[in-house]
Structure formats: structure tokens, C-alpha cells
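Hey, quick one: can you model this chain's 3D structure?
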Amino acid sequence: MSTEQHGTSPDRTATGSRAGAVTGAAGAAGAAGAAGAAGAAGADATVARAAAPGAAPAAVRGVGVSPGLAAGPVARLAAAAAEPAIARLAPGADVEAEAARVTAAAEQVAGDLTAAAATVDGERRALLETTAQMAADPALVRAAQQKVREHRLDPARAAWEAAGDVADQLRALGGYMAERARDVHDVRDRLVAVLTGAPMPGVPRRAEPFVLVAHDLAPADTALLDPAQVRAIVTAEGGPTSHTAILARALGIPAVVGAGDVAALGEGRLVLVDGGAGTVTLDPDDAAVHRAAERAARVRTFDGAGRTADGHRVALLANVGDRAGAEAAAAAGAEGVGLFRTEFCFLDHAEEPSVEEQVAAYRPVLAAFPGRKVVVRTLDAGADKPLPFVTATPEANPALGVRGLRTARHAPDVLDHQLEAIAQAATAEDAEVWVMAPMVATVSEAEDFVASCARHGLGTAGVMVEVPSAALLAGPMLARAHFASIGTNDLTQYTMAADRLLGSLADLSDSWQPAVLRLIEATCRGGAQQGRPVGVCGEAAADPALAVVLVGLGVSSLSMTPRALADVAAVLAGTDLGRCRQLARAAVDAESAQDARDAVRAGLPVLTEMGL
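Sure thing. Here's the predicted structure for all 612 residues.
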């Protein structure tokens, strides 16, 4: 349950998707990249009220990805420097000195990002450190210097063209790596800013808090967001599983993404952002601004026992990726861990870590939850997390290739060693350890995985439901496996045939899609047939409105970023199980994601009362 009081917001720790895998893959493609910024810059903020007295304020609509209400003047993301003109070095110029300027610029950008990383922690630090490594990638620096030496290009133009070549290489790889081409452009923009003396692109600094508006945000920008200064975020692109969405939820910043044309959100214009409904109201009246401020001042806490208004228990767990994340989750009152991502132990390794290294990494996470459930996901390599010792050669469609449990076909010993390490860590600690495999698609895969776990003494083995086949075969799969956990991010991606990292497909990459909800319903039905629990560990669990639907469909546990626990608990505590089921039916029977979202929100007045 959740309790609410008025006061200042507590410190928030960000968790989000790991960006470290990009370094290795980009390096393999001769690339370096970091998150990019776009948008228009303007003068200092001045509040504008353009709506006529008595007229209904206009609104911009997008996808609400981080609930909450916030009002403030718009501050646009600082614009990147313009494309440098094609300029050649003057006759007699010191070519080597000009080439050395590229190295110096890369070192400066990397140094600034490293210094920024020291001011944050957890996943945000990892993102910035990875971006710093990308900025100083020798492959990119050498490529730019070659253009200076061989073509006598001005260093800024050389850096621009070299980064463009790297971005083209990443786009050719397809899938996740194609999306990282956007990151390379940010490194390019930072290098050009240093080489030309232009202002560095990124999040602006203001004397007063503001609503940040951008075409898109990338990891380096989102990692440095300060909730005390950034009241809300609105982006033209992006989807529910973008870096912006994930980190906004982790920081508790209301956010709307995929808003399309945000030209109306001019610098300094007063707006009211509803991160739950996905709306941005232009020129709100004073009463609306006051209500938003009042609700933002309320602090909810979670007492560690999730339940509906009529007492139906729903375990509220946390998604964690390392020791720091586990400790933050325990401090937030999480009942346990519904998703322990073990990739942190493998990323940035050229060779498989030893069993001893893995045990040492897993034990602190288990130690944070003595006597409580910790669901450990085995290595989810492949696609966005390529690892040389488990993944095959580059694939045309990596999201549809060798990833998750499928890597055991190529490297069975890696899975065997990991299960051995998990078993040793479980024996050494007091947590109740469950183990699950990602990307299970067939009944035989489920059966083989359960048998492998049993050989290592791991008696509670489950499957992740991320592909439609697993949802449709949930009954027979759960006749073998002991539980299922639905990864809504990938289940949505594969159901809608839409890359979840492409902002242009944000409307499809939405777990409110009725087709996705029907597959969740089918999974819960299969679990009920076998008497097995079904949980959700995807980003959908952090949406308080969608959490109600999931419970109504039969989900017994929800795992999310720790920051979302109190809000989800509060909404469930204000809704009885019968109402959850009614709203779930309405969502499943809807014809579009927006219709489903609107129907559920209309039936949950508690969301408005809580400012969600």
C-alpha cells in the first residue's frame, strides 16, 4: 500500500537500460557514438499566455510514459552547431597540428562527460562513462585525422564527415545498432562545438525550473537531468521504452514522448504536462497550475505490501541491474526483485567472466533481500547487447536472431556456468532465488531450461514471455516451468512487428495495444490452468493505470523501477479487484491503444485525484 503526505520530493536514483554494449558493437563497426540533442534554442524564458480569456486552452498530445502533473515555462534543448562548410586547409598549414586538434577535442569531450559522470550514480553514471568512451574512440579519431591529412579538410568538417561514415555503418547493421546512429551524431555535434568554439548542445541551465522540450533526448542528456530543475519532459520523438521514458520514470519526472510537431511549445511558453494522460496543455490557467504544484508537492511512500482496495494481494517488486540498484529498491520498500538483470557482469568483457566473478557479483544483490524473492534472469545477450563469446556473426535482423536463451545453442557452457554461479550465490545468501530464461519460444526450450536448472539445484525455474508463441503456449509451457514473467517491452515489439527503439513507431510500441493485452490475457489463462503464477517485469508495470489492467487480467506480481512503487501501490489500493477486471475487459475489447488508455483512465478517477 501507499501513504501520502505533503513535503519536498525525496532523492531519486535513476535506473535505466544499459548503454555499455554499444561501445563494443560500435567499435566493431569502426564507430563511436553518444546521445544526441536537437531542438530550437531561444531567449531567456518569459511566460506567454496566448489563449483568449475564457477560451479552452489548446493541447498537444503524445504518449504518456512517466505519470505526474507539472507546469512551467518551456525551455528548448540547446541546438547543435550547424554543419560546417566544406573547407580546406590553407596552403602551408601545419597538417599535423590540425590533426592533433581532433585528438584534443575528443579528449575534451570525453573529459567533460567523465567529469559529469562523477556527479551522478548508478545507471546514469554508466551511460555517461560509456558515452565518454565513445567520444574518445580511436577509430573515430583516426578516421577524422585521415580526412585532415589526406584531403586537407578543416578539422571540424573532418569530424563531421567521419562521424557520418560511422553512423552509416551502424545504420547498415539494422535493429538496435541502427538506432545508435543517432548517438554518433551527438558525439559529432560535441566535437564540432569544441573545434569551432560554438556553444555545447544539451540541456539548458535556467534560474527557475522548466519544462524541457526537444525533438528527442539521448542518453548523455537524460543521464544529467536534474528533477529539481526539469519539471517535465516533452519530446517530438521517442517511445515508451526509449532512454527518455525509462530514465524519466526512474527520476519521477512527468514525461510525454512521441508528441510529433512541438513547434507550438515555444521558448518560455507556459505549459501543463500530464505524463499519465500524454497531454501538454498550452497556457493553462492559474487554478490548473496551482493544482499541479499542489499535487507535485505530495510525497507517496510504499509500506511494502501491495494489495487492491478489497485486500487482493499483488506483490510489488523491483527491476534491478546491480548492487546499487538492489539497495535502492530495498530502501524504496520493494517486496523483492522481479527482474535481476545479470548482463552487468558480462558487458564490456571480451571473454566470459569466471564462475567466481559471477558469484561475487550476484551475492550483494541477493543479500539486499534476505528471506524475500529475487528472480534472476539468465544472460540476455544478443540484439542490443552483442557479446563476442556468445553471439554469432553480425545478423541482418538481430532482434530476430540469436539472443537470450538462444545463445545457449552456440555457447551452452556459458549458460551452464551461469547457473552454477547463481546456485552458489543462492546457497551463500538467504534470498529466495528464482531463475528465468529470456526469449523462450517453444515448449521444448522451456522443458530443457527447467531441467538445466534442476541439475544445478535451482528448484524454481521459469520462462519469460516475450514472443507471441510463448503467450499462446503458456499452458503447456507452464506445465513444465514453475512461473512466467511477461516482458512487455519485447512482447509489444514482436506482437506489433515494430522496433521498440524507433521513435517513428512510438504509436505501435505501446503496451496498451489491445493485441498485446490479449496475449497477456492468454498467458494468465495458461498460468491459471496450471496453477502457476504470472508476473510482469516490463516497463508496463510502472504505469499505474496499466497496472490496474494487468491485475485485472490475472497478473499476480508487478516488477518496476523502484521510483514507481508508491504510485502503483496507491492506485491499486484505491481500486478493488472487481473494478480491475472490468477495466481490463474494457482495455482488451478496445480497438486501439489510445481507446484502451482513455477507457481505463476515465474509469479511474483516483488517477486525477493523485495527479497521475
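One thing worth noting: The chain has three domains: 20-33+82-196, 59-79+202-298, 303-609.
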